[in-house]
């Protein structure tokens, strides 16, 4: 299989020497970049492996969402990320790197157009900021030269088994909304301190978990705590001395005034990153030898070490029988069980507990 890279555009600019010269150069380069984006794909190339614009096709349509616990009616997938990639399973585009991918972002009404797509066979994928899970259109799409394919209104029904009892975070595939500590002064990268508000672009942040929780791991009460301030951005290992790193167990405390019985509750666990990790879930008994759920060994994106805020996305829907819950205070134990290295861990994207579908209580707003 052949795959082309390029053409490559190099832009050299200049500006009078002054205290603002770097900013002037940078802004000018960004303007030029936007011009080149509009001009792509270039038609001057002579390679058979680089189709010109008239040899490509496009796909357009509208994506809607149906989640009756958010809205009884269908509503638009506002700002959805939509793309064409090699045919595969739901979410497989994340790990696919041999074929070509073409992506765009939908407008506020969920309408989209993906232009200048190379001829070939593709699956249509999407994900929506604020909505858990991945969407895939059930029919593969064949692009031919000059084709303009209009899809019917597409409907995404995200994973959902019942009404929300509580939630932690924002389903946006990053851990940026959680507590990110200040960087170490000795490791500070000043490149990211000017006109930037994101602490996560700094080295060594993971080590501050042990400083913030020196003796006991994180405990989060959904009725009291705020995830912006109290949920550490990454569940990392703990250094117990002599460079010995062990897994950690976080707790989520929540109160149930009544338990729907019989019935299954659902814990939606969305991860923004995982690296050589194993996430285990226990309910109300930290000492259970066998966890109620285990992800097994997952991840290898190393976003923690690279001071990023997300890697590959993972979603686990964990059913919890009502027999494991009780009226009053309950505890979910989240154990990252793998140890031995500094960078083993996970970043959470979003956590939600759903009541059984027969549950009649209204959504709890924390």
TrEMBL record:
EC numbers on record: 4.2.2.23
CDD domains on file: RGL4_C, RGL4_M
EC primary class: lyase
Entry annotated with the keyword Lyase: yes
Gene3D superfamilies: Carboxypeptidase-like, regulatory domain, Galactose-binding domain-like
A Pfam family hit: fn3_3
Keywords, alphabetical: Lyase, Signal
GO molecular function, one term: carbohydrate binding
Domain named Rhamnogalacturonan lyase: residues: 78-151, 164-353
PANTHER family from the UniProt entry: RHAMNOGALACTURONAN ENDOLYASE, RHAMNOGALACTURONATE LYASE FAMILY PROTEIN
UniProt protein name: Putative rhamnogalacturonan endolyase
Source organism: Rosa chinensis (China rose)
Lineage per the UniProt record: Eukaryota, Viridiplantae, Streptophyta, Embryophyta, Tracheophyta
């Amino acid at each position: 299989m052949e795959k082309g890279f390029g053409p490559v555009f190099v832009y050299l600019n200049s500006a009078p020497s002054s205290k603002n010269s770097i900013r002037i150069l940078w802004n000018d380069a960004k303007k030029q970049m936007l011009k080149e984006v509009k001009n792509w794909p270039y038609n001057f190339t002579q390679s058979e492996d680089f189709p010109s614009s008239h040899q490509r096709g496009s796909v357009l349509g509208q994506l809607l969402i149906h989640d009756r616990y958010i809205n009884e009616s269908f509503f638009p997938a506002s700002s959805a990320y939509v793309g064409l990639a090699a045919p595969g399973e739901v979410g497989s585009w994340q790990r696919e790197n041999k074929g070509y991918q073409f992506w765009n972002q939908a407008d506020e009404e969920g309408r989209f157009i993906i232009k200048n797509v190379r001829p070939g066979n593709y699956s249509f994928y999407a994900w929506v900021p604020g909505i858990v899970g991945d969407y895939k259109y059930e029919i593969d799409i064949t692009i031919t030269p000059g084709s303009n394919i209009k899809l019917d209104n597409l409907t995404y029904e995200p994973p959902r088994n019942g009404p929300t009892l509580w939630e932690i975070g924002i389903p946006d595939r990053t851990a940026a909304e959680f507590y990110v500590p200040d960087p170490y002064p000795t490791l500070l990268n000043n490149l990211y301190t000017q006109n930037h508000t994101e602490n996560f672009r700094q080295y060594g942040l993971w080590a501050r978990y042990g400083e913030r929780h020196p003796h006991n791991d994180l405990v989060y009460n959904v009725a009291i705590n705020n995830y912006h301030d109290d949920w550490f951005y990454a569940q990392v290992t703990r250094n117990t001395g002599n460079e010995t790193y062990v897994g950690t167990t976080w707790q989520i405390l929540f109160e149930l005034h009544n338990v729907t019985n019989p019935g299954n509750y659902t814990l939606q666990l969305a991860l923004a990153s995982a690296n050589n990790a194993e996430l285990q879930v226990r309910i109300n008994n930290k000492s259970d030898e066998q966890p109620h759920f285990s992800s097994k060994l997952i991840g290898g994106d190393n976003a923690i070490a690279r001071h990023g805020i997300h890697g590959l996305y993972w979603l686990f829907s964990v059913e919890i029988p009502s027999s494991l819950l009780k009226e009053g205070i309950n505890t979910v134990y989240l154990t990252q069980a793998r140890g031995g290295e500094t960078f083993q861990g996970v970043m959470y994207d979003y956590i939600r507990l759903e009541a059984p579908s027969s549950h009649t209580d209204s959504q709890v707003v924390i």
